[in-house]
């Protein structure tokens, strides 16, 4: 079901709906025949959606020869991935299998970017376990397969040289308090815990190992390899416009907040401020494809679906557009003024 943008302005709740968008426009410096149409779908409301909205309303996609024309749809990421048959790019994140299973089945999906959050996580362990590597052959509790704690556990385990699919048994043990309880009863021998929960668990005598920053995917930017082959310059323009929007988001707080608040009721102002601060803290200059976070996605797919067992991160990624921007004059010029990221 397609919903016009004014309907979204009626309230925050509608942001739980997935969004879709088209893009085509020429900046004054672009000739009219140089403008390219890009159909962009948003699956869910998260960091990537917020950045793109700022990019649209601040005219940054237009600056790079693109026009964004939004067509919100009621959709999930899974259905959104299938809808790439009808759109060119998709921003969103959900069950990793929504991406991995179609690729394993022959779909030509490719990830061109990803937002990743970095949070402090440690591994709670039972007495007698002195290193993460000693969890080999034991049970590790996560909230649910494919959930954030599962992705975190897989990163921590791989850092210790363990294969999450072969060397441990990952089991669903509920949210953090339930996982800590299961650990205390030796129902599981390891559980990933964030910094706050880990601190409380230590007060109860639970041993915490390797409290370190762990990357977890929050949003993916997706397209198809056939679209890249057909419209390589259009994808390049889009990624430049998106990088421009990230810079605008983190460097122009008041302007970005004003844009976001147009789609929320006035009484949600404080919520939008908190959301902006949370999103801004997660942003990096580019939506780089983090190898550890993507490997965790592939590990989940291998554990949950046989067709996904042979996939590697390289099979689902196309990093060259971000790679081109990393050391480009374009990016350096954006960040001539120091911005805390």
Number of domains: 2
CATH class of the largest domain: Alpha Beta
Q: Outline, from the CA principal axes?
A: globular
Percent strand equals: 15-25%
Order of helices and strands: HEEHHEHEHEEHEHEHEHHHHHHHH
Q: What do these coordinates show?
A:
It is built from 16 helices and 9 strands. The longest helix is centred in the last third of the chain and has 20 residues. It is globular, with a radius of gyration of 21 Å. The two termini are 37 Å apart. With 341 residues, the protein is α+β, with helices and mostly antiparallel strands.
What's the short version?
The longest helix has 20 residues, at 232-251. The protein folds into two domains: 5-116 and 217-334, 3-Layer(aba) Sandwich (D-Maltodextrin-Binding Protein, domain 2); 119-216, Periplasmic binding protein-like II (D-Maltodextrin-Binding Protein, domain 2), CATH 3.40.190. It has 16 helices and nine strands.
SSE order and pairing:
Layout (H helix, E strand, L loop, with lengths): L4 H4 L10 E5 L14 E6 L3 H11 L2 H4 L4 E3 L6 H6 L6 E4 L4 H8 L4 E17 L13 E4 L5 H12 L9 E4 L3 H9 L5 E5 H9 L3 E18 H6 L1 H20 L1 H9 L7 H14 L8 H14 L8 H4 L3 H7 L2 H6 L7
Parallel strand pairs: 2-4, 6-7
Antiparallel strand pairs: 1-2, 1-3, 4-9, 5-8, 5-9
